[in-house]
Amino acid sequence: MCTVSFVPNRGSYYITSNRDEHISRPPAFEPKREVVNNMGLLFPKDPQAGGTWFAINELGHVGVVLNGAFEKHRSTANYRKSRGLVLLEVMSRETPFRYVQDTCLEGIEPFTLVLWENGSLLETRWDGNRKHSKSLSTLEGHIWSSVTLYDADAIHQRASLFSDFMIENTEVRPEQVVDFHSNNHQDFENGFIIDRKTGLKTFSVTQAVLDDTTSLRHFDLLNGKKSVVSFNTDQLTLH
Predict the structure, then answer these.
(1) Cα 153 off chain centre by
(2) Do 84 and 65 touch, CB atoms closer than 8 A?
(3) Alpha-carbon distance 186 to 205, whole Å?
(4) For residues 116 and 187, what is the distance between their CA atoms, to the nearest angstrom?
(5) Are 71 and 149 in contact (CB under 8 A)?
(6) Which of 47, 48, 108, 113 is at 20 to 30 A from 165, Cα to Cα?
């Protein structure tokens, strides 16, 4: 929930996310299908809070949440619901973007939501007081870095690395995007794979591949496992 990228490639689209957490937090359960509010969802589950940072619903909509909105905020201990549970609630709807616009987010910690819905790429940022939403071009790549973990200089550097990656790869395969997200770029503090002295570490990389079908790929970096799941196939644990 700390780095997200969107990459278009000749009618296919890849949405990829890194999950950075403190080592005291348990790793997520590998992705599987669950029904939430009568909607089938694919998502890796956080065993601590029961939510997720990345979900696909049976209509092909994709949602990814990042911590924070525009600037680093001070967390409190009295939020009424985790952002991961909010994402499940949003993605259990037929029109996730409309739902997040209409629902009250008072008492929810600030977040950034990236949505793929009916061929549109949409962004909503909740700053704790109001929502800021916009539509983004699907013809170019985009990258988001959580403002709770990365300062402005680090965010700019990461965006520059992503821009170089897109320029160097005119036809991008999903595996190349995963490799990019799995590289610390010689920087364990602010690279795409972090391992900070504070105990913050990159746990996993998760990717939605949107082409003729929609599949969810999950790379558990702590245990060296990869799983692929879609609504059309049973879950496959590859290695």
Answers:
(1) 21
(2) yes
(3) 18
(4) 30
(5) no
(6) 113
